[in-house]
Amino acid sequence: MITSLSIENFALIEKLNIDFSTGFSIITGETGAGKSILLGALGLVLGKRADLTSLKNKEEKCIVEANFALGKYDLQAFFEANDLDYEEETIIRREILPSGKSRAFVNDSPVNLQQLQDLSFYLIDVHSQHQTLELSEEEYQFKIIDAIADNQVLRNDYSSILKQYREAKSSLEAKKTSLSAILKEKDYNEFLFNELHSANLKVGELEELEKSYEALNNVEFIKENLSTLLALANEDEFGLLKNLKEFKSVLQKNASFSIEYESLFERTNSVLIELDDIVKELNRESELVFNDPEKLELLNQKLQLIYGLLKKHQVQTVEELIDIQNDLERKVVSVVSLEEEIIKLENSLKNFEVQLDTIAAKISQSRSEAIPNLSSKLIETLNLLGMPNVRFKIEITPTSNYHSNGKDGLQFLFSANKGTDFGLLKKVASGGEMSRIMLAVKSILSQYSKLPTIIFDEIDTGVSGEIANKMGEIMRGMSQTMQVFAITHLPQIAAKGNTHYKVFKTVLGENTVSELKLLTNDERIIEIAEMLSGKDISDSALNHAKALLN
């Protein structure tokens, strides 16, 4: 339950600190006094988004802080799952900075808005006019039935498997799409792959082939140059080797006279050895160089093949061709791999469907068993609320689809009067009837839920008199097991509360501010008398107010 609320710099509220008690609390105030502002501030600590328009003073930050007593509600698991410190007296704080940034904390640990929203699900149910409209929606109607049927564990199991089922189904569809696309190009891809594979491409091959081709294509020129080089080296009279040997012989005569001559002699000897080795190598090369038209043609064919492939695939290097070949190989091989994966996924889907069908059948069965109980409780409560002839016809129908909450379809039919046909709730129920039905639903759910707090925001719309009195009694009955707040304009409901708070505006200089105060017994009599007769309170209104309170 919420034990206190502190608000600073929010809308028309400069600073507000208020404590709350257990039981049934009433909040009243004139239209525009700030009741919606109070709910808006509370919405911030429950994870709703905010912007700079929420700040009263744009230069200062807005802070909303709420204290919750959680000792009775088994929320330790939630705190552990979200890596938060659990405290029986938990503090949730929300800050909106002048820059527009928002921060949230649970027991001083930073949290994101999603975590705050998830936690708020276990703390407070704020009933608004919008939620009354939800009553006509199938998803909300299922929630009501499932709460009575105690289907939460089954629904959690179903949701977990359904998530896996949908992921597997999505994966299956993606793989089938991929397979279909690959199969369309399968023959062409296989042709391209075989063409590249048969080319037996190697990294760096093109450069080597081009060099070999150039050498073989210029064999006569090379041979002629080699002959000239060998002649220059080996000529009997003027050959390089003969002259260098003679040069060495003469230099050797001076070698004994100084270290410098000896060094020059050794260097000359090294040159002679190197030149002799070069000449021998040239002799070997000369013997290897010969005209080979067949090899030249083969080299030319391989080069033309590679040039053709480069042009065909619009790339510049053999390495890129090899990458394309590898990619084509993966595509060709992936057909078999994808087919195997598709078979596995199809088998998984069948297994998931068996599990989902089994759980959905249990959910459907428990719903069918809970519906008579729900109908009788609704009728009993609505009879108290001035609807003596109300009837419900709630029909569960099996479907073949896997919905988020099972495989059932639902018709929530309603008749308010004798002699009238059943119709869909959203089509035949008036606004006042919807408010009373929603209160009956909340009253029933409070017997099955561990929710600490519920806030009714003007659920009394469209009702008055004795019906309002009965609505107040029902809400007071709910407060025996949970904390209940009612924001109301009706004195009959206001008089039922254990505590009564008033929202009002005051003008301070040039500023208008909203405030909230806990009324004393005398102040409460005056407030209810004003609700009965307006600002000019009559004695009869005061007496009526006292009678309502008593």
Automatic annotation (TrEMBL):
<protein>
    <recommendedName>
        <fullName>DNA repair protein RecN</fullName>
    </recommendedName>
</protein>
<keyword id="KW-0234">DNA repair</keyword>
<keyword id="KW-0547">Nucleotide-binding</keyword>
<feature type="domain" description="RecF/RecN/SMC N-terminal">
    <location>
        <begin position="1"/>
        <end position="506"/>
    </location>
</feature>
<dbReference type="InterPro" id="IPR003395">
    <property type="entry name" value="RecF/RecN/SMC_N"/>
</dbReference>
<dbReference type="GO" id="GO:0006310">
    <property type="term" value="P:DNA recombination"/>
</dbReference>
<dbReference type="GO" id="GO:0009432">
    <property type="term" value="P:SOS response"/>
</dbReference>
<dbReference type="InterPro" id="IPR027417">
    <property type="entry name" value="P-loop_NTPase"/>
</dbReference>
<keyword id="KW-0067">ATP-binding</keyword>
<dbReference type="Pfam" id="PF02463">
    <property type="entry name" value="SMC_N"/>
</dbReference>
<comment type="function">
    <text>May be involved in recombinational repair of damaged DNA.</text>
</comment>
<dbReference type="GO" id="GO:0043590">
    <property type="term" value="C:bacterial nucleoid"/>
</dbReference>
<keyword id="KW-0175">Coiled coil</keyword>
<keyword id="KW-0227">DNA damage</keyword>
<comment type="similarity">
    <text>Belongs to the RecN family.</text>
</comment>
<dbReference type="GO" id="GO:0006281">
    <property type="term" value="P:DNA repair"/>
</dbReference>
<dbReference type="GO" id="GO:0005524">
    <property type="term" value="F:ATP binding"/>
</dbReference>
<dbReference type="InterPro" id="IPR004604">
    <property type="entry name" value="DNA_recomb/repair_RecN"/>
</dbReference>
<feature type="coiled-coil region">
    <location>
        <begin position="335"/>
        <end position="362"/>
    </location>
</feature>
